[in-house]
Amino acid sequence: MNHFTTLTEAMEALRERGYTHEFGPKSDYLEEKSTETKLKSDEFNVDEFHRFEGTSDPGDEMTLYAITAANGMKGVFVSAQGTYSNEASSELMAKFNVSDRAGVNTDGAVQPMDGLPVGDN
Question: pTM of the full predicted structure?
Fold first, then answer.
């Protein structure tokens, strides 16, 4: 899997792979923005995700999720750190906790950097 430099680059690559819809949270469901299709947490799966961190502000963290609905609709959901904490139910947001799910491609996760000096040298 590719590690993308920008959110835009990742979204374009996913669009090319058929993830053409955009979803946003509404309380206890996701809503597709152009068709107003509503998906409860048991009506979609997270296929993969890509995390991006701001270069100067850790609060600029964003995660892009590629999802497939039970009806076959494929799209993306972009979550900015803390943005939906008051807008979406905990049940819905739990669906995006993918660290313990074998079927989710986690190659897009932030990887630790190896080989960097530690402390003052």
Answer: 0.72
